[in-house]
Design brief:
Elements lengths: L1 H25 L10 E9 L2 E9 L6 E8 L4 E5 L3 E2 L4 E9 L5 E13 L4 E19 L3 E7 L5 E9 L6 E5 L5 E10 L4 E10 L6 E11 L6 E11 L3 E3 L2 E7 L5 E13 L1 E5 L5 E3 L7 E10 L8 E11 L7 E9 L2
Parallel strand pairs: 1-8, 9-15, 17-23
Antiparallel strand pairs: 2-6, 3-5, 3-7, 4-6, 7-8, 8-10, 10-13, 11-14, 12-13, 14-15, 16-18, 18-21, 19-22, 20-21, 22-23
């Protein structure tokens, strides 16, 4: 226990060091984040953990998130949007995969930002965890992939601890309304091996969209009182689009680029509105006829845009299908300086 406490203290010092270094490295951009370091604390080996860093644009001009670059292959990042307008916020999700490490592990997620006026900076977001050798998750998280609305898939995850015959879970905690979960003790032997099986399911009334939730298993152990289990899924409705992400490539001339989404449903529908245009992006007005397939053409002209580099734009498509939520479509491209 003393050894783990020392590791956690060391981990905290490492995170503080990362946070202190970013003040010199990023300057004006650091103040846009509410925090720049996070310690997951003790986590089982194999666990996949995540933390959301919030960026709030307090400037008078838009900010583009150009790039997310991890210092280690065990860490990855994802931004909720690529362009953050004045007064708006974005979430940078940092994930750590603990399968190949033990003990204290500290990594950095480098976030490159650029303003519409051309100011560029790199912010360092530090994450640290104390990866335990005696508690193992298999698999490290639960990912359902794509699930059709109304389906009720389930997956199982095992939690095993070695050398603690009295170890036990007391309860589960989750804020999710779309998940069902059951935790069962599957093994307990005199040699000190204790195993649990966690079965997680998607409820039939889960709404269309992303599921990014967490189930916490609470134990009686003061050293590891809480074990987070990450659960992800994409619940898809009747509307679908191909491709899922439109890659428009490099834009190096004033002619710009065009790309197309094919939007389908089993019932005839019309596209009533498309959000996400502006700053160089536009869409060709869709046909007014009600039919089961529509082609949505997306265009980008660099002279009408204010940012350069890697761009990611999300278009929200509204239809006249009253029981279907809007469909989010993503387009990416690179604009040469």
């Amino acid at each position: 226990m003393v050894r783990r406490t020392i590791r956690c203290v060391v981990g905290g010092l490492i995170v503080l060091a990362l946070g202190t270094g970013t003040v010199q490295a990023a300057g004006w951009a650091d103040s846009l984040f509410s925090e720049r370091a996070f310690d997951f604390g003790p986590v089982p080996r194999g666990a996949k953990v995540k933390h959301d860093f919030v960026l709030t644009n307090r400037l008078a001009e838009p900010i583009t998130i150009l790039n997310l670059r991890p210092s280690c292959g065990c860490t990855s990042g994802k931004a909720s949007t690529s362009t953050v307008n004045p007064g708006a916020s974005a979430v940078i999700e940092a994930r750590m995969d603990t399968r190949n490490f033990l003990g204290i592990k500290a990594t950095t997620l480098f976030v490159t930002l650029v303003t519409a006026g051309g100011r560029e900076a790199e912010v360092r977001l530090g994450v640290t965890s104390n990866i335990l050798a005696d508690i193992v998750l298999n698999p490290g998280s639960i990912d359902f992939g794509t699930v059709m609305k109304g389906q009720t898939p389930s997956q199982m995850l095992s939690i095993e601890r070695i050398g603690a015959p009295g170890w036990r879970f007391e309860r589960m905690v989750s804020a999710s309304r779309v998940l069902s979960a059951q935790l069962v003790e599957s093994r307990r032997d005199p040699k000190g091996v204790v195993s649990y099986a966690l079965t997680v399911g998607i409820k039939p009334d889960a709404p269309v969209g992303l599921v990014r939730d967490e189930i916490r298993l609470l134990s009686h152990d003061r050293e590891t009182p809480s074990i987070p289990i990450m659960v992800t899924a994409t619940v898809r409705g009747e509307l679908s689009a191909a491709p899922s992400v439109l890659t428009m490539g490099d834009v190096s001339s004033s002619a710009g680029k065009q790309g197309r989404f094919i939007i389908r449903a089993s019932r005839p529908f019309t596209i009533t509105a498309v959000e996400g245009t502006g700053d160089g992006f536009s869409v060709v007005p869709p046909e007014a006829a009600r039919k089961t397939m529509h082609v949505l053409t997306v265009a980008y002209k660099p002279e009408e845009g204010s940012t350069r580099g890697d761009l990611r734009r999300v278009f929200r498509v509204h239809t006249d299908l009253a029981d279907e939520p809007p469909l989010d479509l993503t387009a990416t491209l690179h604009v040469a300086p």
